UniProtKB/TrEMBL annotation, chain A:
This is Multiple sugar transport system permease protein. Coiled coil: none annotated. It comes from Micromonospora ureilytica. The chain crosses the membrane at residues 29-55, 90-113, 125-146, 227-247, 286-305. It is a multi-pass membrane protein.
TrEMBL record, chain B:
InterPro entries: Bact_solute-bd_prot1, SBP. PANTHER family: ARABINOSE-BINDING PROTEIN-RELATED, BLR3389 PROTEIN. The keyword Transcription does not apply. Keywords: Signal, Sugar transport, Transport. This is Multiple sugar transport system substrate-binding protein. It comes from Micromonospora ureilytica.
Length: 313, 446
């Protein structure tokens, strides 16, 4: 800044300030112009609905007596509501198992496909990714049929060995039934992200490592994985957010799973039931916000513990 | 990321018949979204939601016979799916159709929210004589009438004649005999005798009422006060009975109306199917009773607790109601009165066992009385079973928060199926749950 004033010495100080102010203003306007369209959409479709939902969550509507302002009563109710708490506990448990499983599978597949460069690798990549291209709803319906003991293939397969097919839609195994569906659907997608990250690694590093005597395993664990750590963290956050909001698969399988999956199976389903079948938009909003709080805390905690790594956030 | 998928699902679920995303979505008051084709132009159009299997025919019949009004029909899903959408439209204040198909047990739920029109003012007297007093009672709240009855659901015991013959069983007349027969079939290595489905709470409620339960007492003149009695001895007995059957492995625990259950019925995995008069229509629609199954089904009256004092109950049965959002309620009422009231539509309904009509002209039609029902291999099912059951049905008072009650019931029946509670415990929990909800909703619970 000093050089600027030196070069245009004849100008008086107030004049300079004025020009500088104009430039600033123009830059500001340009900036806002670029951000504007996004800002409008962001406000209209994210902030406004959120604010409205927050507003709704502070009221209570009764069949008898109408609507009244209750401040945080709905939140107090949510955190003492066994339906909400058991649903939240389920998704937390589910996250703890499903996320590591998905990431390990995705990472292993990405590393394997990165070291193999044949046509077979390209074909495999497509096939592994394919489940993600199938709409969740259709995937869930398909698995519902595969799990079916009445007419699914399991009964026949287990029948060959004289055994009874496990009931993946029953209350004992539904956890694993859903785990399988989610992993099947998402591992391929995460694999592609990790694979793309691996492609961005400079191959000369591998050469250097090989010259230093590193084997394939060492290259994978010492070079590749540390270098794609940001991508790993990215997919971890994605899957954490997604799993805590678990909705589609259980909602679809609900019709096939005999009483195993209730309307309060996950917090998201519970909010949906409250809002759309019981017309309790107020409590539904409160549950959604409470869930949002849990997601925020979990993601924040995760990022806090991984903050030393290079992170995308 | 996943949120996008969630939105897509919600949109899809909202789009109508759940898994098979159908053509028209919001039904609403937009006449361009009809499932049926309206041929007469420049005539006022009344929108309608409904899910009877033969609605297309019924609507076409109505439109053919009327030059002053045309019906635009949308199927937004069966049962709960439709109610969810209607509920959302009520809350939004827009998006509801003019006329809606509603099961009798849901009418008070929508009425208490002020979502339905009292149709007594629109030509009620002209059609009053077409239905029995009991039929009108089921669609009324107090003195006001909130729907035009279409069909009822007298409950009976559908059974597999081939299985009964094979294990040498005669249709049980009491629930005690039902259990004995179930045991006998099981001991002989036969199939399950029936099914305890968590997702049919309205049937469970009907079976409790048969034993003498009266879950709700609600006087619309004093809307604030409600009697909730879900854990009396009769209610407990029925849940204990079915829970016991399931625990002993005598009956299955599949959700009904699912592919799993229907395939079970087709494969002869169940000897009996306790259901309403409209059930055969849904079964044939799903392919049951055709091909190899032809002629294997028969029907007998519902088993009784006390054969000296038989009680008949009803499951489902529906009506056409006019919504508060109808722009021309009088015209909408005309449609509600006229739909499924002409001879051709009614005849199609009862010959195919899609509906059990409540229209007296149909009920008294000798053709219906003496009909040899193909599904039941020529058995005169109406004369022998369904008509006596419908005649003896006395009607019940339904809850003004039917959706919550039935959801809560479904949850407790699921617990019974899992084996985590007994029937009695489930009844106590249900009482606690529903009474708490009623209080939260501003009622005083007695």
């Amino acid at each position: 800044m000093t050089s600027l004033t030196e070069k245009r010495a004849p100008r008086t100080q107030p004049e300079t300030r004025k020009i500088r102010g104009k430039v600033h203003l123009r830059e500001h306007l340009m900036g806002w112009l670029f951000v504007g369209p996004f800002g409008v959409v962001f406000l209209a479709f994210l902030i406004a609905p959120l604010a409205y939902a927050l507003y709704l969550s502070l009221f209570q509507k009764k069949l008898i007596g109408g609507t009244s302002f209750v401040l945080f009563d709905n939140y107090v109710k949510a955190f003492t509501d066994p339906s909400f708490l058991s649903g939240a506990w389920f998704v937390i448990r589910f996250s703890l198992v499903s996320i590591p499983l998905q990431i390990i599978i995705a990472l292993a597949l990405a590393l394997i496909l990165d070291s193999v460069t044949t046509v077979f690798a390209r074909f495999s990549r497509l096939m592994i990714f394919l489940p993600y291209a199938i709409p969740t709803v259709i995937g869930a319906v398909m698995w519902g049929f595969l799990y079916s003991r009445g007419f699914g293939p399991l009964t026949d397969i287990f029948g060959l060995f004289g055994a009874t097919a496990p009931d993946f839609l029953g209350s004992d195994l539904i956890f694993y039934g859903l785990l399988n569906v989610v992993t099947w659907q998402w591992a391929g997608y995460y694999m592609i992200i990790l694979y793309a990250a691996l492609q961005g690694v400079d191959p000369t590093l591998y050469e250097a490592a090989r010259m230093d005597g590193a084997g394939r395993w060492q290259i994978a664990t010492r070079i590749k994985i540390p270098l794609i750590a940001p991508a790993l963290i990215l997919i971890l956050v994605f899957s954490l957010i997604g799993t805590l909001q678990f909705f589609n698969e259980p909602q679809i399988l609900r019709y096939l799973a005999a009483g195993t999956i209730g309307s309060d199976f996950t917090p998201n389903m519970y909010a949906y039931q409250q809002a759309f079948s019981l017309a309790n938009f107020n409590y539904g909003s409160a549950i959604s916000f409470a869930l949002g709080g849990i997601v925020f805390i979990c993601v924040y905690a995760f990022l806090f513990f991984t903050r030393k790594r290079r992170s995308f956030l | 990321m996943k949120r996008r998928r969630i939105l897509a699902t919600v949109a899809m679920l909202a789009a109508g018949s759940g898994l098979v995303a159908c053509s028209s979505d919001d039904g609403g008051s937009d006449a361009s979204n009809c499932t049926n084709t309206i041929t007469k132009q420049n005539v006022p159009v009344v929108t309608m939601w409904g899910w009877y299997p033969n609605t297309q025919l019924v609507v076409d019949n109505f439109n053919k016979q009327h030059d002053d009004v045309q019906v635009c029909w949308t199927n937004v899903g069966q049962g709960g799916d439709e109610y969810d959408k209607f509920q959302t439209a009520i809350s939004a204040g827009t998006g509801a159709p003019d006329v809606i198909m509603v099961e009798a047990d849901r009418i008070p739920t929508f009425q208490i929210q002020g979502a339905l029109v009292d149709i007594k003012q629109y030509g009620f007297d002209a059609v009053k004589a077409n239905y029995s007093e009991g039929a009108w009672k089921d669609v009324s709240v107090g003195d006001q009438v909130y729907g035009v009855p279409v069909d009822g659901g007298p409950v009976a015991m559908i059974y597999r004649k081939d299985i009964f013959d094979k294990y040498k069983i005669t249709p049980p007349k009491t629930w005690a005999e039902y259990e004995q027969a179930a045991q006998k079939v099981k001991d002989a290595g036969g199939p399950l005798f029936g099914d305890l489905g968590a997702n049919v709470p309205a049937l469970t409620m009907a079976l409790q009422i048969q034993k003498g339960a009266s879950p709700f007492t609600h006087d619309p003149a004093q809307p604030k006060a409600i009697g909730v009695k879900l854990n009396d001895q009769a209610s407990k007995d029925v849940l204990d009975y079915w829970g016991g059957l399931a625990k002993k492995g005598l009956v299955g625990t599949q959700n009904q109306f699912t592919p799993e259950y229907i395939s079970g019925v087709i494969n002869g995995n169940y000897a009996t199917y306790i259901s309403a008069a409209w059930a055969p229509g849904y079964l044939t629609g799903a392919g049951v009773g055709k091909g190899q199954d032809t002629g294997k089904f028969a029907v007998a009256p519902l088993p009784q607790w006390d054969p000296a004092n038989p009680v008949q109950v009803n499951w489902g049965g529906s009506a056409f109601s006019v919504t508060k959002q109808a722009k021309k309620p009088e015209l909408a009422a005309k449609v509600a009165y006229g739909l499924y009231a002409d001879k051709e539509s009614l005849t199609d309904g009862w010959t195919n066992q899609i509906i059990f009509p409540l229209n007296l002209t149909a009920l008294k039609d000798p053709a219906l009385v003496d009909l040899k029902v193909a599904f039941f291999n020529g058995q005169q099912a109406n004369k022998e079973v369904y008509l006596p059951a419908a005649d003896a049905y006395k009607g019940v008072a339904y809850a003004p928060f039917g959706q919550y009650y039935l959801d809560a019931m479904e949850k407790q029946v699921s617990e019974i199926i899992k084996g985590s509670v007994t029937g009695s415990q489930a009844a106590d929990r249900l009482q606690e749950d529903v009474a708490k909800y009623a209080k939260e909703q501003g009622f005083t619970v007695q």
